[in-house]
TrEMBL record, chains A, B, C, D, E:
The keyword Transmembrane applies. The keyword Lipoprotein does not apply. The chain crosses the membrane at residues 307-325, 345-366. It comes from Fischerella muscicola CCMEE 5323. GO terms for cellular component: plasma membrane. Mediates influx of magnesium ions. This is Magnesium transport protein CorA. It is found in: Cell membrane; Membrane. Belongs to the CorA metal ion transporter (MIT) (TC 1.A.35) family. NCBIfam families: corA. The lineage of its organism: Bacteria, Bacillati, Cyanobacteriota, Cyanophyceae, Nostocales. One of its GO terms (molecular function) is cobalt ion binding. Residues 1-20 are annotated as: Disordered. Keywords: Cell membrane, Ion transport, Magnesium, Membrane, Transmembrane, Transmembrane helix, Transport. The gene is corA.
Amino acid sequence: MAKKKHHLNSIATEPENEDFYHQPGTIPGTIIVDANAPPPKIVLIDYSPTEAISKEIDTPEECIPYLDTESVSWVDVRGLGNEDILQRLGQVFELHPLVLEDIVNVPERPKVQDYEDQLVIIARMVMPKKKNHGFHSEQVSFVLGKHYLLTVQEEPKRDCFEPVRSRIFKNKGIICKNGSDYLAYALIDAIIDGFFPVLEKYGERIEDLEDEVISQPTPKTLRKIYKVKQELLQLRRAIWPQRNLLHTLIQDDNEIISNEVRVYLRDCYDHAVQVIDMVETYRELASGLMDVYLSAVSNRMNEIMKLLTVISAIFIPLTFIAGVYGMNFNTEKSPYNMPELNWYWGYPACLAVMAVIAALLLYIFWHKGWLENSSRLNR
Amino acid sequence: MAKKKHHLNSIATEPENEDFYHQPGTIPGTIIVDANAPPPKIVLIDYSPTEAISKEIDTPEECIPYLDTESVSWVDVRGLGNEDILQRLGQVFELHPLVLEDIVNVPERPKVQDYEDQLVIIARMVMPKKKNHGFHSEQVSFVLGKHYLLTVQEEPKRDCFEPVRSRIFKNKGIICKNGSDYLAYALIDAIIDGFFPVLEKYGERIEDLEDEVISQPTPKTLRKIYKVKQELLQLRRAIWPQRNLLHTLIQDDNEIISNEVRVYLRDCYDHAVQVIDMVETYRELASGLMDVYLSAVSNRMNEIMKLLTVISAIFIPLTFIAGVYGMNFNTEKSPYNMPELNWYWGYPACLAVMAVIAALLLYIFWHKGWLENSSRLNR
Amino acid sequence: MAKKKHHLNSIATEPENEDFYHQPGTIPGTIIVDANAPPPKIVLIDYSPTEAISKEIDTPEECIPYLDTESVSWVDVRGLGNEDILQRLGQVFELHPLVLEDIVNVPERPKVQDYEDQLVIIARMVMPKKKNHGFHSEQVSFVLGKHYLLTVQEEPKRDCFEPVRSRIFKNKGIICKNGSDYLAYALIDAIIDGFFPVLEKYGERIEDLEDEVISQPTPKTLRKIYKVKQELLQLRRAIWPQRNLLHTLIQDDNEIISNEVRVYLRDCYDHAVQVIDMVETYRELASGLMDVYLSAVSNRMNEIMKLLTVISAIFIPLTFIAGVYGMNFNTEKSPYNMPELNWYWGYPACLAVMAVIAALLLYIFWHKGWLENSSRLNR
Amino acid sequence: MAKKKHHLNSIATEPENEDFYHQPGTIPGTIIVDANAPPPKIVLIDYSPTEAISKEIDTPEECIPYLDTESVSWVDVRGLGNEDILQRLGQVFELHPLVLEDIVNVPERPKVQDYEDQLVIIARMVMPKKKNHGFHSEQVSFVLGKHYLLTVQEEPKRDCFEPVRSRIFKNKGIICKNGSDYLAYALIDAIIDGFFPVLEKYGERIEDLEDEVISQPTPKTLRKIYKVKQELLQLRRAIWPQRNLLHTLIQDDNEIISNEVRVYLRDCYDHAVQVIDMVETYRELASGLMDVYLSAVSNRMNEIMKLLTVISAIFIPLTFIAGVYGMNFNTEKSPYNMPELNWYWGYPACLAVMAVIAALLLYIFWHKGWLENSSRLNR
Amino acid sequence: MAKKKHHLNSIATEPENEDFYHQPGTIPGTIIVDANAPPPKIVLIDYSPTEAISKEIDTPEECIPYLDTESVSWVDVRGLGNEDILQRLGQVFELHPLVLEDIVNVPERPKVQDYEDQLVIIARMVMPKKKNHGFHSEQVSFVLGKHYLLTVQEEPKRDCFEPVRSRIFKNKGIICKNGSDYLAYALIDAIIDGFFPVLEKYGERIEDLEDEVISQPTPKTLRKIYKVKQELLQLRRAIWPQRNLLHTLIQDDNEIISNEVRVYLRDCYDHAVQVIDMVETYRELASGLMDVYLSAVSNRMNEIMKLLTVISAIFIPLTFIAGVYGMNFNTEKSPYNMPELNWYWGYPACLAVMAVIAALLLYIFWHKGWLENSSRLNR
């Protein structure tokens, strides 16, 4: 099994996601530590209906006393930068080598796998970027046991689990009265709901682009539409497997997840479907925008061509007339040779004819509606 | 479970639908009251085969005496603007916290859920706008019990249930002889049938656009087509899950819905399929229109270019001839220097040549059919 | 159940199909009689292996004596313009109110429904128009009982059942030896086979458009392609549900249809699949035509631009030269001021230079192949 | 059941396939003999593991003695032009009337049908045309009994069964050791494999078009692409139902086909899937070509426009300058009136200015890369 | 069964893949040796948990002593150029004739087939080309028995199995402790993982094209996009059937593959799905690029047209004015005949008017933003 840490995010815009992969054919279960990955920070939260403690620990082994107690132990590992710690983590939680590989060699496709007394869930969390467009995307792996939950995040800096932590310590809602399966649900729910703020930004960007594409289509607009389509494709790739994952969790009958939590997961599944619905709608809208863009560019071309045609159509005949009376036929040799030149009202008459022609053409073009259009061009 | 009240309608055109969502990770079952939502108005209709009463009530608790009687009690809540009343409503009807959240935190995706002795149905009602294009879209939630039906609407101003109310009080048809399940059917049927007038307007708009797109394609047309596509996408998102919802109602064997009503629901399901059929057809037509638009714009460009080419092709050679005889070669230095200038018929001959060339070119273009086309341009 | 008579045909070209619908929320089973619908004409055909009679009757009640005899009774109602007669028809045949509604409130989507001892089939018949393009589309409803078949057509003027009637009276084939189920099969088969002549016309129109689109693309062509696509969409909407209907008839085990007739229906199903195949193929071809049209229009634009460019490229330099020798520099002030004007061969040399330039440019354009193309433009 | 002989091939390019159909509503099982169809030629091949005979026979009845012997009898009927012989054939082989109709009223959609002790297979054979592009398409019907195989071909001139005949008479491979089911397999396999040479030609044509479309896009190219798409659509319509047919043959458990032959049919099925794979790939490539064509045409337009712009941009300013010095302001009236005309170096200076402007503009356009492009135009 | 060695790779860019096929209708199991195929080189690797040997052998018969021992024997045949050796190979491994045909007559579609005590897997290996774009594609066939694995490669020069060989000899991981099924897994895993480096190159090419298509769209870009689409189509055709193949291996219950290896294959299946995901994403991106290209070309056209229009709009009126004062009306005949020519400030005034007009037009165009755009044209 080759270890690979590659391209799922290749279209992501986060430079920190350096994608790489190992030589095909290496031993399955080998884990690859990215040299630039941040060192892991481990936080243990242990709670029961009556009390909750949180402490940061240095070595995975410090968790062991907590794991088999009745209280729920949540071991949250943030960062993948130390192979030794990750290997020891695997031993403490007795992970199958393939599981450890899936957890560490990000990105993996979201999925759920059942290993006897453990349920391994690979999920993907998105968070809107604060400063620019786009979103951060990060793998979160769950190992769910009877009395514990191990979560492994790629990145220590940010996650969307803070409200859950707060609910544990403030003992709000029913979280503390339930087991580790409810905790896993609460975190997955936070991940799925985290898609909504990201999507909302895309809704706004698409609305902005709608205006821009019709009134001011520039190559920059094109680039933006393409970007939005690209990022929505990435969101879609992140949410679809999570829907399937939730579907599997609801359907399967394994003992780790209780029926009560399944009711909650069903609700979470509905939200995932809603996210998919919105992603697909936005994708269709963005695709439609591309068509509109092409049409709008053609429209502008029409306007430009109309302007050129109007200018040419008016001046070319006039210039021709001026050219005619610029000819040097000898008026003295014959009365038929350009007698107009010697007329008393020749020049004014000539100018008048020109003015009439110009006015006539202008009227025709105005009647066709070309003049207004070209003036509307930049609106 | 995050509470969210968000983007399902983001492409709707109703400004009252302010989409927002809560912090991912908040407690499931939390309800969010939109500050701008209208305060709830509660109407209780209680009827039996022999009599029917209707009264507006202030507190949910006033319903309690009616709920367990044999007569059908329809509690219709319109408006979501008071958290306290909504919470008490939940207690009166013993709603699961997730159900209350689904009812209040609109928009939710249409679905049906079975909670032992209650059937919860989330539906979406559309009504054509009176003044402009587009439609109002509103969530209607049903909680169906053995002898009662709770409906919760977003908006007190309008619904499409008036004919049903009238049938109850005029004791028309079989509605009063049947239970709450038939009432629920009658309302859902009214919702599904409410799609038809909306769709009819889109049928007309598409027909108008067909004409406009071929005869007068402007950027405004483009915007209209895009708008229609967008709104049809929204209709599609509203009707598809309702079809599935009806399918579930027909298939599932729960005790709340009787077999006789199931026959009626099957008919209602057929109508939902018919709505989908029409939505998809209109979507295909609208997509086709976009292609036609692009082609029509290109066509007009051709016409413009033809006009420019005809004008240029005719005057450029003539102007050249005029230019030639405007040269100042000294006719006195040589008999070969522009002897035409001194010919007796020089000028008339020159004009005649020009006229012949112009006539010839005009004939060629007429023969190619360019002249008629450009005259047809604005039709 | 709202009664609606609406938009299924909104894209049909028949003005007689005035689409309308009732207020959503009206009583299910209400029938709506279109004021312009033709009054019903009822024909009763009763046949057994040995004899066949046909008579036109005025009231539905006249059928009653025939219905329960062993001979097959075919009651053919043509026209939906009399509510009283339709209601009495419902009583004679003991139709469920929903069935009567489906039969009368056209258009309904084709479907089959099983009502204990009756099989209700809603089908859609198409017939090519005689004078112009397009087709007539009409709903035919079947109510099939053990010894009788009720058919209801929208329109008395035309149907495609004449050959079946003739087979009954001439006692040709096995029709008279079989029951009402075989009669229903024979009529459905006639309906399905009726799609082939309609499709053939589309095949021809598409072939015509193929030529037109490449050699003479005009906005009219565009309109025609769009029209064909639209009508094929409508055909598709008519045939798909009939395929499903036939599939249901073959699969279901109800007692009204015998196994022998099921073999025939399987053949009819194959034909429906063949119709779908052809409709989809034509739709793909028509879509392809739209792309070809766009390309062809661009091609013509290229040709027009080439012509303009050739003309401009040839005459603009020549005109420039003429302009140069039209300058009025004073040759007397300096020997360097336009000495060409006083040369003996000045003018001929100038013309010669112009001719050489023109010839050279023509050669270049001919070499590029631009000249042939522009001459091929109208072919 | 209407007899129809219609449009499946309407997009075929073979004029001999005159499509027609009968009046909808005629008696099922009626066969329609096309007046132009070639008269049938019947060849009987009878073989056992030890010997093989072949003889041409005149009447179907001559087959009877061979049909029930243990040896395999292959009756190959080529041509559909004699109704009497076809009817007698139906009697000899005891065909169901619908089967005879399917065999004779070509084109029928490929399918397999099980009639107790006969298996009826309708297949479609394609052969590349020798002289021009495209392919011959012909229906081959199989009636497979325990000891005999009846095949009916549309056309006596060509088929792709020659190698099979040769294997029978040279007793090569295992064909003679097996029954009629193996013979049917061998012929179907020959039909499926016959798609490969046809497809190969399309592969080549698409490759040729790829070059043409980028370097030399003309309306002719467009027509070719459309043609290829059209013909691939036809191939697809021929192969898809044959895949389903093979799938049915493998899955069904009927006694006529032995398990050993089923292994061979599975291989044949794999080839059909491979054909579908290639057809779909070619279709995608051809669709892509249409896009490329459109882009390439736009590209050429750009090149043409650049050329026009370069020419105009260079000569228009020069012509203007020439025009200025062609003005007739009276130099004697004022020292400010065109003093340049009387300068000693006036004319050379003027020409020099013109040259500088031209050189400058040429440099700018060269720098923009427009000059190279327009020279690359015809490559 | 026709022997064919044909078009699966027709769109590949490797000239060595000369596609050809045999006459349809030839004997199934016939193998076709391509005259240019490299002669086979056979390497036998035999290993047990304790030791591993590797030797190159000349004749297939040399394998026989190893095949039935408990140790795992991997016979790796590279090259298909010798019919005799291939036939003897078939005898040594007791291959069904159809299997030998599938192995030798490349390309075959990837698939898995179960022959009692052998599992035959046809896979397709891809490797990035070192020097240019594109990839090498090669069929690898596996015949998996209880204690042996036969692999047949098309090409001796390269494969991606080297790391597996190295793991065997260095006794790394668990490969030597497991049977031939694990070896087959390891090789298939290496094949699937071999898609990632190929895909990564496409990710990079698409990113490069994104830049190019917006800033510098040339016909070359078009060709590149088309090429990428084409090659991705080919990758897709290679990976999809391998996903199905892995799915079959996981699901089927045959005895050759142990449950432990099935866990590993499930992981390998996940990677295949990930590959498909990436291929589809890249295909969508490449399709989007084509649209962007078309829009970008239109954009550039707009820029070119703007430039032409600006130049024409400025100089055409000026030239007209110059033309007017180049007319030869006789100023002596009338005071109204071009009195400007005799004004003292006539010429300067004329030039000034021209300058004002030019400045005004420039200002208008600058205001419309046309001037900046045309300067941005080549960026």
